[in-house]
Fold this protein.
Amino acid sequence: MKNYKRKNKESESGDNITCRPLQIIVNHSFEDAVRKFKSLFQKEKIANRVKEKQAFEKPSDKKRRKQRESEERRVVMEQREELIRSGEWEKRQAKKAEKRKEKYQQKQKELGKTE
């Protein structure tokens, strides 16, 4: 009878979650820094990776989830392409840029008043 050694699943499947450090520089307000941290946290998908590693996911469930996510991405891309074809995309982008510009100008006014 052979004596099989059990492999360390942690190192094999990559269960060790490592990410680059999130560095936020606080320039003006703490609220802005918290907002930036939250957005970086979501961009890096740290919470998602931790949640995935909390419980075992059957291969069939994983396959189903990946297919569902792929379908969702495909639908979003189709919607975006439709917006681009109709010309609505440029309008939305211009509107977002205008909002950012207004927000920037408002912050500049606030900073000018406090100095």
Q: What stands out?
A: DSSP finds five helices and no strands in the chain. The radius of gyration is 23 Å.
